[in-house]
Design goal:
The protein has 218 residues and is an alpha/beta fold. The chain has two domains: 116 residues, 3-Layer(aba) Sandwich (Rossmann fold); 85 residues, Alpha-Beta Plaits, CATH 3.30.70.1450. Helix content is 24%, strand content 28%. It has a six-stranded parallel β-sheet with strand order 3-2-1-4-5-6, with helices on both faces. Strand 7 and strand 8 form a beta hairpin. The radius of gyration is 20 Å and the shape is elongated. It starts with a strand and ends with a helix.
Length: 218
């Protein structure tokens, strides 16, 4: 994919490196000259300019990008970049960083945001996940479809041990997308057996999360 990242601070550069390592083309857009340091991520294309300006986005070719990530430290900037990317350049996928959780209500599809990532919420979710084996934990909200990424770790005494994935009677608006088992990432097949300690990742409508829990025996 071709990905544009608005904001070349520590967060933006870190995201860029991860994406480049994954084989993607990355462009970093930075408006502050003191943070314009192409030598820090040499494999990326760098643009010095304000991503809140339509002219900057036009000149950088944002319309050719598959994804735009608004990763600055200013929520107002991230909202504006998201709106421009979606409405003016029809970017298929827009991801925005939420710096202040109090502003999270703004980061919706009405402002062009497909996925809002709040670091405090993610950290809290990781803490919950670490101590809540057997509980359903919401990790991320996909704003466009009103769906959530949720996780449940099977406890040692799970009744699902040894049973195939096909026996999980999930509700209509939920899907098991990944099983994390140790250092393995498993794309679940109907015949795959479940094991204690498996981390199950689901995409589910918020209204059926309770039904997902019941389907897993909780």
């Amino acid at each position: 994919m071709r990905v544009a990242i608005a904001g070349a601070g520590a967060v933006g550069r870190s995201i860029a490196r991860e994406l480049i390592d994954g084989g993607h083309q990355v462009m970093l857009i930075e408006r502050q000259s003191q943070q314009f340091e192409p030598e820090t991520v040499e494999q990326a294309d760098w643009v010095l300019g304000d991503a809140c300006e339509v002219s900057t986005l036009e000149e950088s070719g944002v319309e050719r990008c598959d994804v735009v990530i608004a990763a600055t430290g200013d929520d107002k900037v991230n909202v504006v970049v998201s709106l421009l990317a979606k409405t003016e350049f029809a970017v298929r996928r827009v991801v925005a960083r939420v710096n202040n959780p109090a502003n999270e209500w703004l980061f919706t599809d009405a402002w062009g945001v497909d996925v809002a990532v709040s670091t405090p919420r993610m950290l809290a979710a990781m803490v919950e996940e670490a101590v809540s084996v057997g509980d359903l934990v919401r990790l991320m909200t996909f704003r466009q479809g009103q769906a959530n990424l949720v996780e449940l770790t099977l406890p040692a005494e799970t009744p699902l041990a040894g049973r195939p994935v096909s026996e999980i009677a999930l509700p209509r608006d939920a899907a098991l997308v990944t099983i994390l088992r140790g250092d393995r990432v498993i794309v679940p097949q109907p015949e795959d057996p479940l094991e204690p300690g498996d981390e199950l990742l689901f995409v589910a409508n918020a209204e059926v999360e309770g039904d997902v829990r019941k389907a897993l025996g909780y």
